[in-house]
Design a protein that fits this description.
single chain, alpha+beta, six-stranded antiparallel β-sheet, two-stranded antiparallel ribbon, 3 helices
Length: 142
Amino acid sequence: MEELTLLLGSNLGDRIANIKAALECLDEAFGPQRLSLSPVIETAACDFEGPDFLNCAVRYAVSVPPEQVLARCKEIEGRLGRTDLPQYDDTGRRIYHNRIIDIDILTYGDRRIDTPVLKVPHPQIVSRPFVSRLLAEMTSYE
């Protein structure tokens, strides 16, 4: 089993309902092995103008390979109404948008993954201070 840490965010619609629905779907996808959950906090949109986000982090024990984790997260995002695909400017920099739900893989055990579709640990952990705060405030289930 590997420890999988995900970041959830929503800045459109009923943000708290979106986060709760995503957590329910993730619990269904990754089983009863939820290890910990952070509080939900409000943060400003990063790298674009938009409404504030609600964010939280969640950790699971999983035996699913990271590529399948990514596929399940994308499927959950789509099921909850996310329709946008990643976009990039002429320099290759990601263009960010408002989102009903966003599920990012922060860590997958101690693995380092660098493929065109998946980078773990998530490259923006360091540049977004609220992520460190969420990770520090996670409450374990025992």
